[in-house]
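Support case: glyceraldehyde-3-phosphate complex. Customer-provided input:
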Amino acid sequence: TLSNYEYYLNGEWKESKSGETIEIHSPYLHEVIGKVQAITKEEVDEAIRFAHEAQKEWAETLLQQRAVYLYKWADELVNMQEEIAETIMKEVGKGRKDAQKEVVRTADFIRYTIEEALHMHGESMRGDSFPGGAASKVAITQRVPLGVILAVAPFNYPVNLAAAKIAPALMAGNAVIFKPATQGSISGVKMIEALDKAGLPKGLVNLVTGRGSVIGDYLVEHEDINMISFTGGTNTGVHLATKAKMIPLVLELGGKDPGIVCEDADLKEAASQIISGAFSYSGQRCTAIKRVLVHDNIADELVAMLKAEVEELSVGSPEKESTIVPLIDDAAADFVQGLIDDAVQKGAIVVTGNKRERNLIYPTLLDHVTENMDVAWEEPFGPVVPIIRVKSDEEAIQIANKSEYGLQASVFTKDINRAFAIANKIDTGSVQINGRTERGPDHFPFIGVKKSGMGAQGIRKSLESMTREKVTVLNLS
Ligand code: G3H
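Agent response - structure generated as follows:
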């Protein structure tokens, strides 16, 4: 019998009154592994109402006490590591070891968030530093919670990117409505089971699952949601930004991160960074390297190294620790195949790959990609890397910046001055010098510009984004 996973409302697991469920298909077992509740708008209202009630008391709860609950949550996640990793693996097709690492990374994230929140203090300002201001006037600025945060997580890090929103929201004194990606909902249920075991006061975190068409816009437009933190696809994020009311939004969306390789780079190192940057978890990471911009005169050498490494990648089941695993669903694989077909038809050279078994796309390198090909600009979220040959740093910068995305970029060169000259001109949230593009370590600011997002994450930034400043002015006599 299939497990029927309930949603979490006011500290209790419940079946939806809709009587409807959503089947969750494993991307590699090709079978239904469980069902989650398709909840109704009324149930969303209830969840938000309970959250507001719980938040009032939580905002008054001592920081040290909030910390106790969250430390417990981190411990419970680690206790459930095997079970949660197994769920992540089955539900989103991530390799078992990576899934285990995701759980540990999440516990570490929660612990660091607690410590950061405990060490954040406000400031005071003297009135007499402004002309005419009195020394008897003192402003005290503190950060206060926003209320109820809507946390929407993606499928690719169903636990880590959910906790990266829930933990700072809670430490900052907020309540949370957590909406996992549909494929990722069972992993979401498991992590909330860990939170339940930690004994968090009821109503503070409510887990809602359901059809985007029924509860998606409803949640986003809801008058009683005070802030939204969303990670997911650019189209959904842009849609969300047009629907949300006048509330703060943090959006982490897609990317088209370039790996720029200069003639003087350590090519072997650059190749291995590009391979792990591009192909881990089949490229289903917003921060994956999604195009290589390489100087013409070293391109052949780099391509040969990349080819050799790609052909070493293991392909197959996440249960066998393969790097290349089936994509999240058939539509995702169709999209990637479409990009490959378009490029090949327009004259790109297949260095290796371009093989497919259902939703499993073999790692594919495309050389001599030109700007008229879709794969030069579109985000595949799959294991295909276009190589674009350039004649100068200026041309690499120009192509890098022509993208609608602006998440990260990598620059490979041994010349630190050159690295900075390029990095300073790249229009992205971060630039990695001689390293692959990646979000972590998780306390670094993580920022997407242009269609890659708005606002900033990273532990301190997330805490700041989920609070606002409040000024109290002392008028001493
Ligand atoms: O998919 C988007 C994630 O934030 C990327 O995280 O760089 O740790 O894989 P990562």
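The longest strand covers residues 137-145.

Case will auto-close in a few days if no follow-up is received.
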